[in-house]
Design a protein that fits this description.
The chain is α+β, with helices and mostly antiparallel strands and 152 residues long. The chain has helices at residues 2-18, 21-42, and strands at 44-51, 57-66, 69-78, 85-94, 99-106, 113-120, 122-132, 137-139, 145-149. The chain is built from 2 helices and 9 strands; from the N terminus they run ααβββββββββ. The strands form 2 sheets. Strands 4, 5, 7, 8 and 9 form a 5-stranded antiparallel beta sheet that branches. Strand 1 and strand 2 (57-66) form a beta hairpin. The longest helix has 22 residues, at 21-42. The radius of gyration is 25 Å and the shape is elongated. The N and C termini lie far apart (61 Å).
């Protein structure tokens, strides 16, 4: 008898909700779509383009939130005919007060180098693009440009 009462209650509820289901589903899906796009927009920040002082190397990308903090994604370009390499140096301050750096190099004038940095929970991040050889940065750097900062 207990099982029969539960079944009847479930059928009655389903029938009562079924009358307003099309209008409710449409408005609920529209609300969910706008909320999802707002959350998605709030979790992605664009940065760049940042160019070296001679404008032969440049980088840009996005910062995305993840379950383990923030990730910096982007592309590093090297201009055709430059005969040197483009270097990207990213530095960030972790939530524990420690500075970290990561360096990327692109010596191909025909391909774009995609990069990703798992920065974790950070307070601020900056990037600069330089020129150099295949082994080190030699100069012609941009200034440090803000990639992301807590609180905007």
């Amino acid at each position: 008898m207990h099982r029969t009462a539960r079944l009847l209650l479930g059928l009655t509820t389903a029938a009562a909700l079924g009358l307003g289901l099309p209008a409710t589903a449409a408005s609920a899906s529209a609300a969910t779509a706008s909320t999802a796009s707002a959350v998605r927009a709030a979790e992605t920040w664009e940065w760049g383009p940042t160019a070296s002082s001679d404008r032969r190397g440049w980088a840009g990308g996005v910062v995305r939130s993840s379950g383990t903090g923030l990730r910096i994604h982007g592309d590093l370009y090297d201009a055709a005919g430059a005969r040197t390499c483009s270097w990207l140096k990213i530095k960030w301050l972790s939530d524990r007060g420690r500075w970290h750096t990561k360096t990327f190099r692109n010596c191909s004038q025909s391909r774009i180098l995609s990069f990703r940095v798992n920065a974790g929970y950070m307070l601020t991040a900056s990037a600069k693009v330089c020129r150099g050889t295949s082994t080190r940065i030699t100069g012609r750097c941009s200034g440090w440009e803000g990639v992301w900062s807590q609180g905007g």
